[in-house]
Write a structure and sequence with these properties.
2% of the residues lie in helices and 44% in strands. The protein has 436 residues and is mainly beta. The chain has three domains: 74 residues, Immunoglobulin-like, CATH 2.60.40.10; 170 residues; 148 residues, Galactose-binding domain-like (Jelly Rolls), CATH 2.60.120.260. Strands 8-11-12-16-17-18-19-20 form an eight-stranded antiparallel beta barrel. Strands 21-24-29-26-27 form a five-stranded antiparallel sheet, with no helix packed on it. A five-stranded antiparallel sheet has the order 22-23-30-25-28, with no helix packed on it. The protein is globular.
Length: 436
């Protein structure tokens, strides 16, 4: 960038700011060397450490600061670019580094295996499930990371060019391919901005932007911070374009990739978008007509629950056949690492609270605390009622009662948060969910 010169007819105003000299190419130079831990972990040093520095490491990741490092698990050539800047402008330089051999130890991460299937794995938006797409507040509201303001019903966004996109994550080279089939779903405030400038109105709100397949891009998964984030490169994106290619990973399991991302447009303040993906060909709701009704005793009927907040569940033999619960089978719930972690089950019929106003269940917990229950409408997840109960006994079965007196007959989904407000992987046992 050349020096910018401003002319003025006023010579007596000495307080007007002026721009300094921009950085030179020498200022943008950098050196690098392999780290002591691995020849595939490279340490970079900017020659002029006094300037603001940003890095593109050529492997899909970026960094800032005069000293930075990058990891290259796979052999190959990588173009690394350093950009330095000051008030006068910026300068950049690029060097190609060569990684001689693969280092399998650097990809020994279970999240990588789940995301890529160990080699390559293709994901698609989970159009069959309620709340596969939606929006909530930023910062996160009381409901946690969930689209509490709007949650799409199953296949509600048909025709928006969202459901036919495919996202393939490769372990080798951290490669990423997005098959768009010609178009992607774009938020109205972001439509018309390259590369999403060739747009047409969607039949289900917002816009469809023409975009060819984005092949040969890369992905980066960062699990070093408070939140795990997933970033894709180039012009690729996942699910719905709202200005960012970096997504917070709410849940990453064998059959679920649930992401959130904050809208970057000033005209859309305070919006967090959500999109849920499943492996290509996987049906998360194969038999909706066979969804259960209350009561649930888990002896003959063991329905499928959808977990969120990185939790999990399984049906096991009752580990404490004593007190008020001597049944043989119970639901074991592992609380996720999010304070709002829980799970839900869709019910075949809507709950009727005209004569039976409460829902009860038995719980065994190792600590006291709050157990939250939510009933909501599958077709409109914004329509819900939440009730809390207190776990007051430990290491024994206790029955909790949730009073839904006055609730409408709209609700056909049961959501439980066994350890509301905790962020540890506690174990809870649950049994005999019934309405009285």
């Amino acid at each position: 960038m050349g020096l910018l010169v401003f002319a003025t007819s006023c010579s007596d105003d000495d307080d007007e700011p002026t721009l300094g000299q921009p950085p030179s190419q020498a200022d943008a130079a950098f050196t690098y060397q392999a780290s002591a831990s691995s020849a595939n972990v490279i340490e970079f040093t900017a020659s002029n450490g006094s300037l603001a520095a940003s890095w593109n490491f050529g492997n899909g990741s970026t960094g800032t600061g005069a000293n930075a490092s990058a990891t290259y698990p796979f052999a190959g050539d990588y173009d690394v670019t350093l950009t330095v800047q000051n008030s006068g402008g910026s300068a950049s330089s690029t060097q190609t580094i060569t990684i001689a051999q693969d280092d399998p130890n650097l990809v020994n991460n279970p999240l990588y295996t789940i995301l890529t299937g160990g080699t390559s794995k293709t994901w698609a938006v989970d159009s069959a499930a309620p709340a596969h797409f939606g929006v909530g507040p930023d910062p996160i509201g009381a409901a946690g990371r969930y689209p509490e303001w709007y949650a799409a019903a199953p296949v509600e966004k048909s025709g928006a060019d969202m459901y036919d996109d495919r996202y393939t994550f490769h372990l080798s080279g951290f490669g990423f391919d997005q098959v768009t089939n010609g178009g992607v779903y774009v938020n109205a405030e972001h439509a018309g901005i390259p590369p999403y400038d060739d747009t047409t109105a969607s039949p289900v709100a917002d816009f469809i932007a023409a975009l060819p397949n984005q092949m040969g891009e890369t992905w980066t998964l960062d699990d070093t911070g408070a939140d795990t984030t997933l970033t894709v490169s180039g012009n690729s994106m996942i699910g719905y374009w709202a200005g960012t290619r970096t997504y917070t990973v709410i849940s990453l399991e064998e059959n679920e990739l649930w992401l959130s991302f904050v809208d970057t447009k000033a005209a859309n303040p305070g919006l967090t978008w959500y999109v849920r993906l499943v492996p290509e060909g996987y049906n998360s709701n194969p038999n909706p007509a066979e969804d259960p009704n209350l009561p649930l005793d888990f002896e003959t009927e063991q329905p499928t629950w959808t977990t969120f907040g990185n939790g999990g569940y399984q049906y096991i033999t009752n580990p404490d056949m004593s007190g008020i619960n001597t049944s043989s089978s119970v639901l074991e719930v592992t609380h996720g690492n999010e304070t709002w972690a829980g799970q839900f089950v869709n019910l075949k019929d809507k709950l009727d609270f005209s004569t039976e106003m409460t829902i009860k269940l038995k719980v065994w917990a190792s600590d006291t605390g709050t157990f939250r229950m939510k009933i909501e409408e599958q077709a409109d997840a914004n329509n819900f009622v939440e009730v809390d109960a207190s776990i007051t006994q430990t290491n024994t079965w206790q029955e909790l009662t949730f009073d839904f007196t006055g609730a409408a007959a709209d609700f056909d989904r049961l959501v439980i948060f066994p350890g509301w407000g905790i962020s540890t992987a506690d174990i809870f046992y649950i049994d005999d969910i019934k309405q009285e």
